[in-house]
Write a structure and sequence with these properties.
alpha+beta, Hypothetical Protein Aq_1857, Chain: A, six-stranded mixed sheet, three-stranded mixed sheet, globular
Length: 110
């Protein structure tokens, strides 16, 4: 495990803490990148029980964000936020490496 150039915003940390508390799980969010989506790659979020050996860890307000070593190359410099709008609420990745993205913000291209 190591620290990296990926950030978990306080808004996202608070939401992860609330979800984890309701589910009785540790406040650990895993972010990974998979092939697919309308732009080539898509973000995948889920709660984790513990970090894996190859994970990079970012921590905000006691909440940890985990990124595996394969996904890290596509996420370096990113910030994960939780945004609420008229269209709904969701985790949002601000990824400086993404050359383009889809309208819903859940997939991107490099």
């Amino acid at each position: 495990m190591s620290d990296t150039q990926i950030t978990l915003a306080p808004s996202a940390a608070a939401r992860v803490a609330a979800i984890a508390d309701k589910q009785g799980k540790p406040a650990i969010l895993r972010l990974s990148v998979e092939g697919g989506g309308c732009s080539g790659f898509q973000y995948k979020f889920g709660l984790a029980d513990a970090p894996e050996d190859d994970d990079t860890v970012a921590e905000t307000d006691g909440v940890r964000l985990l990124v595996d070593s394969v996904s890290l190359g596509l996420l370096e410099g990113s910030m994960v936020e939780y945004v609420e709008s008229l269209g709904g609420a969701a985790f949002k990745v601000s990824n400086p490496q993404a050359a383009s993205g889809c309208g819903c913000g859940s997939s991107f291209a490099i």
